[in-house]
Amino acid sequence: MRLTVRNFSLWELHIRLYVQGLRLSGVLDGYMPHTDDTATDKEKADWEASNAHVRLWIFPSVDSDITLSLWGFYTAHDMWQHLQCIHSQTNATRKFELETTDNTKISVIYPPS
User: Fold this and answer.
1) What whole-number distance in Å separates Cα of residue 81 and Cα of residue 32?
2) pTM reported for the whole predicted model
3) Which top-level group of life is the source organism from (predicted)?
């Protein structure tokens, strides 16, 4: 599944389940600190490899126009936060526009996908 401007919620679920199944959720959610002074060299190397794997799964799973916005991020966690931020704004805007069209209240399945 590829992330487009319309399917973030479903794409997010797919990526989360995949990463969780590989026991790498901590990398995505930012819970595996790579700069901790108490971390051993092996722990830091393991984190680097895990971060690279998750980033490599994210890049090909998004449309090319979205990929360009991710190039500046070093961690999978930062990429994830960026995608959540830009797509939650899009979803909130769509919900507002649908609810205010012609001054009528429209039932909306939120978030749109």
Assistant:
1) 15
2) 0.73
3) Eukaryota
Angle in degrees, CA 39, 45, 51, rounded to 5: 105
pLDDT tens profile 10-43: 999 999 999 999 999 999 999 876 667 788 888 8
Closest-CA residue to 87 (of 106, 113, 107, 105): 113
Q: How far is CA 37 from the centre of its chain?
A: 27
Residue 104 maps to a domain: no
DSSP bridge pairs for 62: 3
In a domain, 113, yes or no: no
How many separate domains does the chain show?
1
Is the Cβ–Cβ distance between 54 and 19 less than 8 Å? yes
d(Cα 94, Cα 109) in Å, to the nearest integer? 11
Prior bond to 112 cis, omega within 30? no
